[in-house]
Design a protein that fits this description.
Elements lengths: L2 H16 L13 E5 L3 E2 L2 H4 L5 H16 L1 H11 L9 E5 L11 E2 L4 E3 H7 L5 E8 H12 L10 E3 L3 E6 L6 E4 L5 E5 L4 E6 L2 E2 L6 E7 H4 L6 H4 L6 E7 H12 L1 E2 L7 E4 L2
Parallel strand pairs: 1-15, 3-13, 8-16
Antiparallel strand pairs: 1-5, 2-4, 3-7, 6-13, 6-14, 8-11, 9-10, 11-12
Amino acid sequence: MNKKIILILITLFVFMISCVPDPLTCTRTGEVIGLVTVDLDLSSKSIRTKEAPIGNYIADSVMEFLDNDNMSEIRLQQYFHVTGDFKVDFAIVNAGNIRHCNFSDKIEAGTDFTTGMIDELLPFKSNVYVVQVRGDELKQILEHSVAKIEDTKGQFLQFSKELSITVDKTKAPEIINKINETESEISFPGERIVSVKLNGNIIDDNIAIYYVATSGYIATGGDDYLTFAEMGDEKRLDMLNTYNVLLDKYIRSVIKIDPTVEGRINFVNE
């Protein structure tokens, strides 16, 4: 291998390292803002394959803010040209957005929760976006979430309490075909999503419009979310707040950190 190739490989390696938050730095310091009262499993096996209590908690923190912030409601009404009361339907957080400190993939019950631990959990500091989606688009987004569940990929989604899904991993997953270096397409939509319920009601695949809070990364097509990528900018709005800020607000308001599994992600034929 000549020196030029070696230099290129070293440069690429340094670039890749610089793009990922340092997983070796533990920041469990700062102001105490809450108390963890149940063990929180932060492992990839938990967060990227099934409903995880910490994923529930983070997604719920986003909804708590959006449900109660008047300025956000006004902005959303104006942007999406909606009159009357406006409500975001549910929030999602991609599992790849949630990380853990290098010395432990668990936060134990009885631990004081500090401001530094928020940046440990959410090192990417992603902005929250609200996206307008049709029922059929939502179904495809959820198919992508579970398409590579066996490989514990970060595209797996965690949900706020308003949404619940049933998944059959024995069915065929979504398949994405790469056309060229910059273009891809969904060549098979997938058959793993058995049902989707919003507040206990089956979603309307063809007609209904839903408003989904998600990360800017996912909203613009990150993690191969092609359905999001193909939407126009008029269908997504940056809420100008990060998950980190909203989680901080939520913990300060409730103090106790005690999320549980609530049946938001269910499996059949396991």
